Amino acid sequence: PVPTAMLRDEDTEADFQRFLRRVDDVTSLLQGLSSPDVAVKEKAIAEAEEKLRAGGTSEEEETRTTVTRTVINTRAPVRAYAFLAMLEKDAKERAKQRKRNEQLANALKEKGNDAFRRGDFARAIQRYTEGLEKLRDKQELYTNRAQAYLKIQEYEKAIGDCEWALKCNEKCIKAYFLMGKAHLALKHYPESRQCYEKILQIDPQKESLFKDCVNEVNLEEKRVKDEERAMKEVQAGSVAALSIKELLQRLDTPGQDILFYAGGIRILAEVVKDCTEQTLFRTNNGFSILGDNEAVRGAFCAERKSPAEVELCVSLLLLWQAVCAGNEENQRLLLTQPDVSAQLPELLSSGILEIQRETLALIALYSEKESGRKLLLRHQDLTRWLQILMAFVKCSDARAGSAMNILSDLIGEKRFKAQCGVLLSTGVLPLFTQLLASARLVNQAALARAIGTVGSLCADPGLRARLAESRECWQGCLKLLDGGPDGSSPSYQECVFAALGLMMNLLLESNGIIQDFAVDISGRCLALLSHQDGRIVTRAIGVLSRVLPASSSAVEEVVKAGVVKKMIRFLKAGGQLTASYGIKTLGICTKSNRQAQEELVKADKGFAVLLRLLQSEDEMVVGNAAFCLGQCLGVPGAGTSLLNSNVVLLLLRLAGGDAARTNVQENAAIALGKLCVAEPRHVHQLRKLNGLAILNSSMKYVHSS
């Protein structure tokens, strides 16, 4: 029998087993009550009567209950038949509900299948999971989800789903087949063979499939053993005496199988350990290995690789890492090999874990240094690389981090950004929005970095404009901000932080799409103002300050939701960046919204916060504070509340000052004029400070405003 791994969720397992026992009990009872055998029927009636007396009591509770008296019930048969009727009614209702659930589960299965066919395995897993929430004993959903887990190298999860599928259908061939694949990937060779043997036991007609699968296991096991033996030989020094030239000559031996060449290349990779050996490799034409050996070249370039070809490809990648590490000339020569240059993007998108891992390691040797990046840009077409590398966000292992490191290295290169623009709309954006929408199913640490990479593209005005016009991009960002079950996890919060940064960059643009989404964007940001992470709060205020000018409806909604009081509270707490975003947000709200003006006067007693901001060293903050003050002086009593303050002196200094930003003088002059109009007693203070000339010059701003 195939050993069964312990299920992680013991409660789920127990619940599932109780459910199956109840089904068996009720089925048995119904059969007994309908039996023509009098003895069987009487026994069933007694059991039904016992269940009626027990009510909803569980078995555990019954064992703790002591019966102290005998109950004689002459109406037992009548009550039993009533119980039968009740069971039949309940069974019909359950059948109807199950039918509805089955329809929903089937619909979700089809959506999952569509996503799987598109290669969106994270979305497929999500749909299959939703289907299982509707119908937990649907075997196809477990096997389909297991197949999706295999695609993203989540082998343990795939095995778990296969085990659940076999609980639903113990003769499910697909479950054993997929479980065998998962065990093989985990190098559990005996378990993998046992799975395939089960297939043959269930259906002897599957002998051909069985032989192919077992051969694959045997070949992989042999490969691993040969590799281990070769490594032991290297470590023992049995090949230490061989020169690089001799090793390369051995690889020229024609007619050998792929594993022979793979082992030789792996040994050569172990021998090359310093710059002297790297030079010897180059001077002995080591880079011609692909051109001179057709078997090696064919295996390296094969579209669909056998396990032996995978091993050879990995060995080549390890060799090139060894000969190129810290050696710029070798790095240049490698990229001038046509097959290498053409195959690098194909290897990255191969879907084979070992190949992808070592390809990423090789590329990292180039991307981490400026000279290496220049070589990549000179010899590689990087048009597809942003899309290819971003796809690794779906991986849960170290490949995701490695891919993001390479992207971080390349994104600062102007030529790389230009190449990214070629497939931005057709390749990058569809993938990126898909990742945003399925944030809780992907590698969130990597997703946060991918969002940051897209944010870096916004430094290019042309790319930023194209991103800002993508309705799907905005929808993806909004869905991510909604959070969900994972919203409080640190990795998800990093995604939210990155998404807010991206949105701030995109909001440097102005278009109809932004106007359409302004209400939704401002609503999400307002909800984030109570977030525990201060960085997220600051960026949410920043997004508000940039999106509100796009929509008067958005301004109206946030004012109704209490944004003015929230901004005053944040401004009181301090923080230079928060102050900059917060006062700008207040300026936008008070510009045309009377409720906002009145709430600011009420929330900021005596304009204490605004007066403090008028003395800030940040001219933008000062200018917006003066603007806010001027907007609110039309509220009855606002000017009077400032009679005992130094507001006239502050505004006079600003209006007559030499700030680099002219709007500081302008806004201060306007506020000064409005102050004297709202409360004439301020004119007396103005005269004392000899500021009437400045006031007179400001009147044109007052009238125009």
From TrEMBL:
<dbReference type="InterPro" id="IPR011990">
    <property type="entry name" value="TPR-like_helical_dom_sf"/>
</dbReference>
<protein>
    <submittedName>
        <fullName>TTC12 protein</fullName>
    </submittedName>
</protein>
<dbReference type="InterPro" id="IPR043195">
    <property type="entry name" value="TTC12"/>
</dbReference>
<dbReference type="Pfam" id="PF13432">
    <property type="entry name" value="TPR_16"/>
</dbReference>
<dbReference type="InterPro" id="IPR011989">
    <property type="entry name" value="ARM-like"/>
</dbReference>
<dbReference type="Pfam" id="PF07719">
    <property type="entry name" value="TPR_2"/>
</dbReference>
<keyword id="KW-0677">Repeat</keyword>
<keyword id="KW-0802">TPR repeat</keyword>
<dbReference type="InterPro" id="IPR019734">
    <property type="entry name" value="TPR_rpt"/>
</dbReference>
<dbReference type="GO" id="GO:0005813">
    <property type="term" value="C:centrosome"/>
</dbReference>
<dbReference type="GO" id="GO:0007288">
    <property type="term" value="P:sperm axoneme assembly"/>
</dbReference>
<dbReference type="GO" id="GO:0070286">
    <property type="term" value="P:axonemal dynein complex assembly"/>
</dbReference>
<keyword id="KW-0175">Coiled coil</keyword>
<feature type="coiled-coil region">
    <location>
        <begin position="87"/>
        <end position="145"/>
    </location>
</feature>
<dbReference type="InterPro" id="IPR013105">
    <property type="entry name" value="TPR_2"/>
</dbReference>
<feature type="repeat" description="TPR">
    <location>
        <begin position="173"/>
        <end position="206"/>
    </location>
</feature>
<dbReference type="GO" id="GO:0005737">
    <property type="term" value="C:cytoplasm"/>
</dbReference>
<dbReference type="InterPro" id="IPR016024">
    <property type="entry name" value="ARM-type_fold"/>
</dbReference>
